[in-house]
Model the fold of this input.
Amino acid sequence: MKQKGLLVVISGPAGTGKGTVVRELLKNNGAKLSVSATTRQPRTGEENGVHYHFLTREQFEKMIAEDGFLEYAEYCGNYYGSPKKQAEQWMSEGNDVILEIEVQGCRKIKDRNPDCVSIFIMPPSMEELEKRLRGRGTETEEVILKRLERAKEEMALSENYDYVIVNDTVAGCAAEIEAVLRAEKNQ
Ligand code: ADP
Ligand code: 5GP
Done:
C-alpha cells in the first residue's frame, strides 16, 4: 500500500508570489497542484481547466449543493473553491496535493483535515507587495486597492499557519517549501 499523500495549503496576500513560487517548486517536485473553480473573470492568458475552472455563480452554487468542494470561500466578491474529487484521488494514489487558497479556505481545511500542512507566504514588505501586485499588471486600480486592504487582514492571520516563509527570492522560497515537505514526510 502506498502512503497517502500530504494535503498542503499555501496562502498569502495577492501579489506575494504564490503562483510564481509554486510553479518553481513543481519543476522538481512531484506534487500535484489542485485546479480551483472560481466565478471571477479569466485574466488575459488564463485557460479554463488549466489555471481555474471558470464557472458562473449558478454553476458554482450547484457544485456547493452537490458537496463537490473540499472547501470554498468568497474573496473580493467572487467564489473560489477546491474541487474534492481530483484532490482525493491524487492523495489516495500517494501524491502530495497543493491547494493555493486564501485564509478562510485554509481554516476550513484545517478543521476537517488536521493533518494538512499549512504554509503562509509573506512578502518582504508592504511596499514590495504593492510593487509586485501593480507590476503584474493584471488588475484594475479598484481591484488592486481591494486586494491590498485584504492583504493586511490576511497577514494578521499568518500566525495560524504551521509555517511562514518570506518570498525574498523565488528560488529561495521554493527551496524552503521543498524542505518543509521533505521534513513533514520524514524523508
Ligand atoms: P500571487 O500568486 O501571490 O498573486 P504572483 O505569483 O502572480 O502572485 O506574483 C505577483 C508578481 O510578483 C508577478 O509579476 C511575479 O513575477 C512577481 N514576483 C513573484 N515572486 C517574486 C520575487 N521573489 N521577487 C520579485 N518579484 C516576484
Ligand atoms: P486570484 O483571483 O488572484 O487568482 O485569487 C485570489 C485569491 O483566491 C488568492 O488568495 C488565491 O489563493 C485564492 N484562491 C484560489 N483558489 C481558491 C480556492 O479554491 N479556495 C479558496 N478558498 N481560495 C482560493
